[in-house]
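new request in #modeling-help
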Amino acid sequence: MSKFLFIESQDPLEDRGAEAYLGYALELARQKHPVTVFLVENAALAARRGAQVPVRDALREAGATLQVDELALRERGIGAERLAPGVQQGTIDQLVDLVADPETRAIWH
Amino acid sequence: MAERKSITLALMDPPYETARVTTAFRLAEAALRKGIDVNVFAYEGAVALGFAQQKPHANSVKGTTVEEEGHPNTRAWLAALVKLGDGQEGRGRLDWVNCGLCVDERGVFEQAGGRRGSPADFHAFIQRSTNVLTIGTR
Amino acid sequence: MGKILNVVERAYQGTLEEQDDQALWLVHTLQKAGGEHAVLLRGPAVSYAVRGQSVGSLEIAGVKAGNPPRLDQDLEKLRAAGVDLYAVREDAAERGISREEAIAGIQWVSRSEVPRLFVEASRVFAW
């Protein structure tokens, strides 16, 4: 099983490319590949509790790790208490550790 | 001794247009501070990130002077990253390459840091990097 | 180790001004430099596969773009250089593009098959 890191920068509510990439991540997670999805920039809008992003919840149910850039959260006024279930704040240091992991295939979209 | 880790970022965005540049700069800094080497291939509009003639400006909407605004140009961040990425005291090394053809067609010859190169440099980066992020423009 | 999979979705942004597609041009140079690459067209970029497309010439205020690309032919050149070409079937169908009007040599995959390509690739670059 290959480890995958999907860094999503686009708002999946607006961008069909983002929707597609999160779908790829979901399929890989369902196939039991270890998958981390790290939301940055406008993709952070999908992290708010109440945001209507079914693929986010499906990813969690499929066992994927969901993190969101703490700077992007602050920028958008999304406090930790407003995060959707299963979404964790992540730091840029944590993101670098994931990108620098030789076992991980990292993909930016 | 463990092999040095390195990551490569391929950037395409020009200055000031998107958040991708900011995220890429943050990634580069964090990696360098962790002792991870960073390679950047600046392609298309990204070759203007280091253009040395960028100047900060006042902001009449906010009523701030140049000094009060404190608006760094991307060249300042690029130069600071190059300085940080000296490989000293446990830090990683930064190799910032500007696509030469892209520099030519934009006329941004005077640069605050990095070096002129070509896709062959990007190919070499790909060969030796732990991971490569293509942070393309949208 | 599989090839590097270049997923191209951004399309027609450099056709006139740059006279190519920036991602396809770069993939071609990387392949020539000794890399092993594949291209997957998704989203609007599936339209690059349509045979016979040509933007013609562009002239603005008397300044003429001299050599606009033929994107279908650019894809064929990539294939001749050893780059595997894939395109997402549903993305083409949604845009009314049939396989009959596409160039030969494209391997059509369904959306659900894309993750398999990710697993098989050595790296995945999203453009």
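bot summary: Residues 85 and 92 of chain A are 21 Å apart (CA to CA).
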